[in-house]
Amino acid sequence: MAFAAWLPPLVKALATALVVVSASMIAEALGPFWGALIASLPVSAGPAYVFLAMQHDADFVATSALASLAANAATGLFLIVYAALAPRLPLWRSLGAAILVWIGAAVALQPVAWTPATALLPNFVVYGLGLLGGGRLEVAAPASPAAGRRRWYDLPIRAVAVAAFVSLVVGISSFLGPGATGMAALFPVSFISLLVVVRSRLGGAASASIAANALLPMLGFGVMLLVLHLAIRPWGVTAALIVALTISLLWSAALLLVKGRRRPG
C-alpha cells in the first residue's frame, strides 16, 4: 500500500525528467534559436496540466489555464529582464532580478478576475514591447562558442528540479485553488534550469540570446493556453489538451518555416 501511494508522484517525476533531459540536450546542442524554441514547448506546464486534469474537474483546469495565460506575461518580463542583464551582470544577479520580476508580476496579476480578452492584454503589451526592442536585447554570441565540460550532475539536477516542481504544483493545487495553481504552473523553472546550465557552459551572451529568442515562441505558448481554456468546456479536458499541444507544435513549426525562408540562399 505504501508503494502504491508513492507510485503516482514517482511516475510524474520520471516522465517529466525524461522530457526535460531530452529537451535540454537538444537545446544546448543546436544554438540559441533552437534552444529557445525547445525550451518554450510545454515541458513543465504540459505535464502539470495533464496531472491536474487527472486530479480535478474541467472547470478547475479551465480556470487554471486562464490564470496561466495571464502569468505568461510575467514569463515575458522574466525573459526580457534576463536578456538585458545577463551579458553585463553575474548569473546570480541577472537571474535573481528576473525571478524577482516574475514573482512581483505574478503577485500583481493573481487577484484579477480574468477573462480571455483581459488575460491576452498583458501578453500583447509585454511581448509586443519585448519584440520591438529585440534588437537591443539580443547580444551577439560567438558563432561557435566553446562549450565548457558538462558536469555529470547538470542534467539530472535540472530534471529533478522540474519534476519536483510539477509534483509540488499538482500536490498543493487543492489548497491553492485554480487561479493560484494556474499562476504557479507558469513559474519558469524550465527556463531557469536551462539558462543556468547554458550560462555555465557557453557564457552570458549565449544565455541572453536564448532568453531574447524565446519571446516569440512564448507568445505562441500563450495562444496554446487560451485554446486550452476555451476548448475544455465544449470538448472536454482530453480533447482540449490534445488541441492545445497541437497548437503549440504548429506555432513552433511556423517559426521554423519563417526562419528557413529568411535564411540567405
Strand content: under 5%
Largest sheet: none
Mean pLDDT: 80
Succession of helices and strands: HHHHHHHHHHHHH
Q: Tell how many strands the DSSP assignment holds.
A: 0
Secondary structure category: mainly alpha
Helix content: over 70%
Describe, in plain words, how this protein is organized in 3D.
The protein is an all-alpha fold and 265 residues long. It has one domain. The protein is 82% helix and 0% strand. The chain has 13 helices and no strands. The protein has helices at residues 2-30, 32-39, 45-55, 58-85, 91-109, 116-132, 134-137, 154-171, 173-185, 189-202, 204-213, 215-235, 237-262. Helix 3 packs antiparallel against helix 13 and helix 4 runs parallel beside helix 6 (116-132). The termini are far apart. The model is unreliable at 1-7 and 140-147 (pLDDT under 50).
